[in-house]
DNA sequence: ATGAAAGCGCTAACAG
DNA sequence: CTGTTAGCGCTTTCAT
């Protein structure tokens, strides 16, 4: 069932059929209809391998992800999917679990027209490999700076800064920071923002700690601090899960949020938003990140001049119910 | 940079190069080495569009998903990814959001060698379309029965039955069921199991209700029931999120779980497992579902005889800390 | 063990 | 506006 069958059936040549396939204007309306109905009858659809071969393009954009059980990733992926579809591209997701298999597959010029790396784990290796293979690609939420590679990141420093400013503005002076695993640049950046805000306000950090990006991590830290009777009046957490665990633990200790202690999270995880008190948090601009990423990649593919390598996006503080003015005791 | 360049560089013909590419034994070792090093030098990798075209296969399996912010999906996808890689196939994920765009793309015989539909939303349409296009495919966690289509589902009836039996075994007689949206067959099946278990024990259902698969859904139901002073001694929830919301609400009402009321969830959501009391829940056999699904698809692709259309897997009750013997008052 | 030739299904270049 | 010819990069007969 190929283009020749359609040609035969419609009484026209394969070239005309191809023209109809590609919406060429130079086909007489009558003939176009003939071709269309022949296709219909034959239940024909063009072979994409053949098209890719001759055109040198696949119409597919690959995206490598490490994890999807997370609102941030979820939102970015959905936006990318939509934007790509608008441009006539198809998104193929690949889980980077088995470093060898999956990504190497995607990393083939003829498999995809371009690649989006979202929070890549083995960032440097991937970047090098992709450059070597000469495949257009962009980085989203990456950790390091790379020359000549367009990337879109969130200004985590600013996020930490604003979260802390918010707390300071509420009169808090004893503010602690609980971050995630130190391998992440974002963790360090958020902390840097926190320290800067405090410094500007002439305050000393109350204390910092870290744990995994999990509810139980936050829970344990809070329990430990409570046990040691070392509690601030406000916590800035590097992640919503941590914040949620913290709130749970504090509640068990008879400490109310935000009445006794204020808590700020990070990421605006969907799920976490269903708990009371609704968490004040920092929302990352996923939609922007996704659409700018797609735009950059499209430019790269079309050979346009590339803009400055790194685009840094401002996150947004969402003030909700877990923060309040410090209690005057 | 194609096979001809390699041939020229190695001083052999394209056919020999092709043979090396395909591990044909009939190549003299010396020549194989020549070819290999030529490939290396040229940084050559074969064009997959050309291969697909001539072979009529792509080496790609498509999987259509609707949502990934969920442990059940996450686990199934990861297993499928691994199993497929073992077989030399690559998994391409596609979000079924924009029904038109995405899936229709995957639904092309020459794009993928086979398709896995995970909890498809527009199940019947997809099945029909895929049959029409004659693409090998399997259904995972589907809602309806289809002739001639291999599918793997979980025995939700059994899950509901066992969860309820567990509660009955703990001496509970006032047991309620809170299910999810009624469009899902799984919701009805879990309820059917619940009713059956009660019936066998000579008990009447205390009451049933339903809400979205969300924490807030469960929270609101519990608040409502508490307000109406209509509380059982045990809840069986059709979903962990609902169960979690329920526990939160009960706690706010001063009711302790499991001391005053026992709660059973469903799905063993990762995240939910981090809360105390750790939820007694029903775990779906994601690993089995994934690997059986892949096996079936492989058989289909290889033209083997298809086994009985539907494989029904038994879920597993995980007894943890949210259920206890009924209090004797 | 190796190679020449044909062809997978499609599009692009060039005629007419 | 339409068709003839060539070729994308690879694998597969079929000889040798």
UniProtKB/TrEMBL annotation, chains A, B:
Pfam families cross-referenced by the UniProt entry: LacI (PF00356), Peripla_BP_3 (PF13377)
Under the heading Gene3D superfamilies, the entry gives:
3.40.50.2300, lambda repressor-like DNA-binding domains
Originating species:
Paenibacillus auburnensis
Question: Per UniProt, what is the name of the gene that codes for the protein in this document?
Answer: ccpA_7
Protein name as catalogued: Catabolite control protein A
This protein's UniProt keywords: DNA-binding, Transcription, Transcription regulation
Q: Which positions carry the signal peptide feature in this UniProt record?
A: none
Sorted alphabetically, which SUPFAM superfamilies does this protein's record hold?
Answer: lambda repressor-like DNA-binding domains, Periplasmic binding protein-like I
Q: What range(s) does the HTH lacI-type domain occupy? A: 1-55
